[in-house]
Amino acid sequence: MKLAALLLLPGLLRSTIAYTTLSDSSLHLLSTPGSDFDINNGKLLAPILRPRVPGTPGSEAVLFHFVDFFAAHLPAWKLTFQNSTSTTPTSGGAQVPFRNLIATRDPPWSSGGGDVGRLALVAHYDSKIEPAGFIGATDSAAPCAMLLHVARSIDAALTAKWAAMETSSQQAAEKWTEDLEDNNQGVQILLLDGEEAFKVWTHTDSLYGARALAEEWDNTYHPALSTYRTSLASIDLFLLLDLLGAAEPSVPSYFKTTHWAYRLMSSVESRLRKAHGIMKTTPRHPFLTEGDKNEMSRWVGGYIEDDHVPFMARGVDVLHLITSPFPHVWHTMMDDGEHLDLNTVSDWAMIVLGFVAEWMDLEGFLGADGEVAGRARKGVRDEL
Ligand SMILES: *[C@@H]1O[C@H](CO)[C@@H](O)[C@H](O)[C@H]1NC(C)=O
Ligand SMILES: [Zn+2]
């Protein structure tokens, strides 16, 4: 199913995103995180479960865990840093460094500049300075690990899909060149620093990394006549994960403007729950609690301040995956690996993965052998 009608909805005005629902067999081809989310020796999550206050060795070690992960397993993703410094209420006048890591994968034919729109997947990797030794497993070590899992789980399918599109475009120049242009969609993982306040949350003591990045990208202009004017404008959707990993979560839909995207993800969740053997929890209600909400329903005013704020203030569309209420371990020493519900962490990873795979139009390209799947799909398309 192609949701072309989406183009008429507010919030998705500028691009021709082809959002394709995954078939049941494709849902089963999505890889599960398995033991890589083990809190003691799992490849993805364990290295993040340590204090990582900005400017400390723990922060550096976690940052290099991310860099190593992409370098070792996902060499096609382009890594960039966006660094800034700021004093904080506890730094005694000293400049604290904040380092955002951006991992980007664009179609091979794109210039990587103003011609590609991107789905941005976002979480903060810093941890709160107090209480001393605070781990922040839900806040946001687990969401970071989920994003690493998503990146590695779509990588081969992206390669296969883009290769198939290029091949087809060579065969039937006109139609497929158009198709290439219409599908100039990339994906980007933003691992942000300095989300937490050092003392008390204020507009200046919080969101250090996000504020620096939003400002820089708002002022990074693409060449004249580009489809997207700035790096900030290239973000089709800013999908922010935070405070995920405690059992029985509830995530409402916060913004009318992106409720369409929330509903797409809610549909992914319900299909994953119906598919046998993918999801590990049987919660009392879906994690995404407001899939049925509509214009006429009650919309809570205001929202939770988080890394999306400086982006939303500049007009970026935001889908905020944060639990309400917050996990009961929030900002306490109990927010550690042992208090995570790993089945819930795994299920969140699958929900986000399913949504991203649909957004990136990967139907027909998932599976161990992406190339074969891709050829099968191309065959189908050639018959149309
Ligand atoms: C940003 O910080 C990272 C990590 O410390 C460092 O490797 C990188 O060289 C810095 N980049 C710039 C442009 O200063
Ligand atoms: Zn926090």
Automatic annotation (TrEMBL):
Domain of life: Eukaryota
Domain Peptidase M28: 117-355
Ranges in coiled-coil conformation: none
Catalytic class of the enzyme: hydrolase
A single MF term (Gene Ontology): glutaminyl-peptide cyclotransferase activity
Signal peptide limits: 1-18
Protein name according to UniProt: Peptide hydrolase
